[in-house]
């Protein structure tokens, strides 16, 4: 039986914050994806490799079994839908929140009270649609792929739905957080078939991640 494993990670905070969890499982990654152009990184375990993919592509690689497991933000998982994925552990890393923000001069509360139709720019269509539907607020959603905070500044939208951690990006762009939609953190995702066929190799890693995440 082939018990070699492929782990899908994105560069940046998820890669950085997953390294200590891997170390807790006895796995070291020596290449730095910020410096190397390699998309496939070896690890100290010859049977485990890491593939570097776009954050929003992690669930797709794992769903189709191109990666056996991966680490993805709740934001990304909600938009993906989670089909074919087993999500055994909230890793408690890459923590932030999903929020609604508007230009400092925009009276969001009164626009909502008056039943105004709002234009909302976001990368997170599903979460935004459900949030405003639950509040009974009418919105036109504008899909963006990045730099949501520019939307209200140039008149593209009245509001944005985006991730916030310290709030410094919002402040730098004269935006105000007016609603917190949900807390976000990253989860371990495992391909459902791999969980069965590669259980022997996967289970100890899942357990090590679980223990390490709990002691964070
Ligand atoms: P890309 O840069 O490829 O467009 P991205 O911007 O979603 O993708 P990152 O910024 O690295 O990629 O974010 C990866 C994940 O980290 C997000 O899906 C989210 O779960 C989490 N995250 C994003 N922004 C923050 C933040 N400010 N603080 C903490 N975690 C965050
Ligand atoms: Mg980014």
Write the layout of secondary structure elements.
Elements (H helix, E strand, L loop, with lengths): L4 E5 L3 H12 L15 E3 L5 E5 L5 H6 L5 E5 H7 L4 E19 L4 H6 L4 E5 L2 H11 L3 E5 L6 H4 L5 E6 L3 H5 L2 E17 H6 L1 H16 L2
Parallel strand pairs: 1-3, 1-4, 6-7, 6-8
Antiparallel strand pairs: 2-3, 4-9, 5-8, 5-9
Helix pairs in contact: 1-9
Bound molecules: adenosine-5'-triphosphate and magnesium ion.
The site of adenosine-5'-triphosphate has 17 residues, from helix 1, helix 3, strand 5 and strand 9.
Task: Give the key terms.
nine-stranded mixed β-sheet; 2 domains; elongated; 32% strand; D-Maltodextrin-Binding Protein, domain 2; binds magnesium ion; 9 strands; alpha/beta; 216 residues; binds adenosine-5'-triphosphate
Description:
- This protein has 216 residues and is of the alpha/beta class.
- It has 2 domains: 5-95 and 185-214, Periplasmic binding protein-like II (D-Maltodextrin-Binding Protein, domain 2); 96-183, Periplasmic binding protein-like II (D-Maltodextrin-Binding Protein, domain 2).
- Helix content is 34%, strand content 32%.
- It has 9 helices and 9 strands.
- It has helices at 13-24, 58-63, 74-80, 108-113, 125-135, 150-153, 168-172, 192-197, 199-214; strands spanning 5-9, 40-42, 48-52, 69-73, 85-103, 118-122, 139-143, 159-164, 175-191.
- The protein has a 9-stranded mixed sheet, with helices on both faces.
- Helix 5 (125-135) links the parallel strand 6 (118-122) and strand 7 (139-143).
- Helix 1 crosses helix 9.
- The longest helix is centred in the C-terminal third of the chain and has 16 residues, at 199-214.
- It is elongated, with a radius of gyration of 19 Å.
- The model has no long low-confidence stretch (mean pLDDT 96).
- Bound molecules: adenosine-5'-triphosphate and magnesium ion.
- The site of adenosine-5'-triphosphate has 17 residues, from helix 1, helix 3, strand 5 and strand 9.
């Amino acid at each position: 039986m082939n018990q070699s494993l492929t782990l899908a990670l994105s560069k940046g905070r998820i890669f950085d914050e997953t390294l200590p969890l891997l170390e807790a499982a006895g796995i070291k990654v020596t290449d730095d994806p910020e410096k190397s152009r390699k998309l496939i990184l070896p690890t100290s375990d010859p049977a485990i490799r890491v593939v570097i993919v776009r954050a929003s592509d992690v669930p797709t690689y794992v769903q189709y079994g191109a990666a056996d497991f991966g680490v993805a933000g709740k934001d990304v998982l909600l938009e993906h839908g989670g089909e074919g994925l087993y999500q055994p552990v909230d890793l408690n890393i890459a923590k932030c929140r999903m929020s609604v923000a508007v230009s400092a001069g925009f009276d969001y509360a009164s626009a909502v009270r008056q039943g105004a139709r709002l234009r909302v720019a976001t990368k997170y269509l599903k979460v935004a649609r459900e949030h405003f539907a639950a509040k009974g607020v009418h919105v036109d959603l504008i899909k963006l792929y990045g730099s949501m905070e520019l939307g209200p500044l140039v008149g593209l939208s009245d509001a944005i739905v985006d991730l916030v951690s310290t709030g410094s990006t919002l402040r730098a762009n004269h935006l105000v957080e007016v609603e917190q939609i949900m807390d976000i953190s990253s989860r371990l995702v495992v391909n459902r078939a791999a969980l069965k066929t590669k259980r022997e190799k996967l289970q100890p890693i899942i357990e090590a991640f679980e223990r390490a995440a709990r002691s964070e």
